[in-house]
Amino acid sequence: MKLRIWAALISIYIVWGSTYLAIRFAVQSMPPFLMAATRFLVAGAILYAWRRLAGDSAPTRREWKSAAVIGLFLLLGGNGGVVWAEQRVVSGVAALLIGSVPIWLVLLDALRPGGLRPNWQTSLGILGGFVGIALLVAPSDLSGGAQQVDLLGMIALLLGALFWAVGSLYGRDAVLPSSPMLATGMEMLVGGAGLLAAGTITGEWSRLDLAAVRPESALGLAYLILFGSLVGFASYTWLLRVAPISLVATYAYVNPLVAILLGNLLAQEPLTPRVILSAVVIVGAIALINTGRAALQKRLSMGAPVSAVSMLDNK
């Protein structure tokens, strides 16, 4: 069992860390929203059909409503921001900025009615996370060069992280099917429909030329469907049932590192001192936030008063 757990965990480290590079390749010759819509509509249809044929009950109207809210926030708002931004921002930097999701989760959980405030560890992690982001997007790098991160791309990624956090918090108390894979398929279908609408509204159909799609873009989309959406989610939902959540949550700070290394090795993305320092600070901040959350959950389970609890559900 331990070997299977670590195999599944390593697959998430590599697969979800590599999706940022796959997205970069895919959007090189495909409109971003239509590409993402294809990914999630195909993967969602496969998951939904599989679970229904396996005997899962038909979702209720209330469950569809919850899945719609989560899917639109996570996939239209969250992933939509990523795919659009990766036309302007390299994949490693995109992964680091999306790594701010735990920061937004803690802040939103503290601000919502009835929410709980962060302890010193999570507060320090929040501060460190914003310092790392500031280092990454500052007008000049550590050696005095020009700005590296496109401003619009940066805003899209931070908004995407915020949307993902909102959807994740909503999903904590939402009414969903008991089957996690069925619920994920529903969220993908609704999110994919939202991305399709976004692509239509922004005029992407006029820019779609199937004859001009490069092989690396087609392979990137296929990889996102098969591995990013199917293998990755299957491994993740299985791990949530058999492994400690603190262990599963480590993907949140391993994925950006994998994305940076793969971007540098396979796409010659610059690995500058500023990117390295920002990665260290942001990943350290995420680790602090996760550690603080784990400590609060332990105190809660023992009946002690707590100041904040924030569950990370970044799929």
What does it look like?
With 315 residues, the protein is an all-alpha fold. It has one domain (6-301). It is built from twelve helices and no strands. The protein has helices spanning 2-26, 32-53, 61-85, 91-98, 101-111, 120-137, 151-173, 180-201, 215-242, 245-248, 251-267, 273-301. Helix 5 crosses helix 7 (151-173). Mean pLDDT is 86; it is low at 141-146 and 300-315.
Architecture blueprint of SSEs:
Elements: H1 2-26, H2 32-53, H3 61-85, H4 91-98, H5 101-111, H6 120-137, H7 151-173, H8 180-201, H9 215-242, H10 245-248, H11 251-267, H12 273-301
Helix pairs in contact: 1-4, 1-9, 1-11, 2-3, 2-8, 2-9, 3-7, 3-8, 4-11, 5-6, 5-7, 6-12, 11-12
**Helical percentage:** over 70%
Strand content: under 5%
Broad structural category: mainly alpha
Evaluate the radius of gyration. 19 Å
Low-confidence stretches: 141-146, 300-315
Shape descriptor reads: globular
Give the biggest sheet.
none
Number of domains: 1
Sequence of secondary-structure elements? HHHHHHHHHHHH
